[in-house]
């Protein structure tokens, strides 16, 4: 989903590119400024000066709309922290509101706008934490090991966001391949990161769900269609958590329970929480 970014959440450079200015003739003012098809009012001076006036005014008005003195009907999104940093003189007029910006963003990181590089760094951090937690909490069955795909985060144009929109997986399989082993396990942990907000090209886009989540498959048998069976009560388990370590703990518990149901001849299966 995406939504138009308001002026107070755009840098001046982005605002100047996105806004439309209509020069006025036989009028008391020089310009009328529009953004996303809506008028932001009038301004004077050169075009750049007029755009700067309107942009600063939008930042000021947004802060006022979020202040205790604003009327109930007046609503506006808060300016972004990056924009406020460019207008310290405006922020100084609303000390209580300005202090609120940091606390609001810290309260719910899902709503903090990230650029593409920051979003990809978030994804890489999530997968690194999930990988470490799974390896710490899950003891693989004898003869098996974690086999994470090498390019799980980079297969689509080298971009973690594109590559993981439909999740990316961690695998447990035989350490040495043996297609004839009827007792082998195939475990896939497909992980989906918690949603974040991307800001690019003058728009905000939200990707992901409210929680970190996992789809988990646990099968035993030859790795061919119809020659293995699920060790779960259903074909897959669906797990959710607000915290990556908590989610990995759920995954480990399900794997331990499922493997305790396995039938192994000549292969000892052990799976436990570390």
List keywords for this structure.
274 residues, alpha+beta, six-stranded antiparallel β-sheet, four-stranded mixed β-sheet, elongated, disordered C terminus
Describe the protein's topology.
Blueprint: E1 2-4, H1 12-18, E2 20-23, E3 31-35, E4 38-43, H2 47-65, H3 81-86, H4 88-91, H5 95-107, E5 113-114, H6 116-137, E6 144-146, H7 160-164, E7 168-174, E8 185-192, E9 196-200, E10 203-207, E11 212-221, E12 228-230, E13 237-241, H8 244-259
Please describe what this structure looks like.
The strands form 3 sheets. Strands 6, 7, 8, 11, 12 and 13 form a 6-stranded antiparallel sheet that branches. A 4-stranded mixed sheet has the order 1-10-9-5. Helix 6 packs parallel to helix 8. It is elongated. The chain has helices at residues 12-18, 47-65, 81-86, 88-91, 95-107, 116-137, 160-164, 244-259; strands at residues 2-4, 20-23, 31-35, 38-43, 113-114, 144-146, 168-174, 185-192, 196-200, 203-207, 212-221, 228-230, 237-241. 34% of the residues lie in helices and 24% in strands. The two termini are 40 Å apart. It contains 8 helices and 13 strands. It has 274 residues and is α+β, with helices and mostly antiparallel strands.
Which oligomeric state applies?
A: single chain
Shape: elongated
Total strands: 13
Amount of helix = 25-40%
Number of helical elements? 8
Could you say which structural class the secondary elements and strand pairing correspond to?
alpha+beta
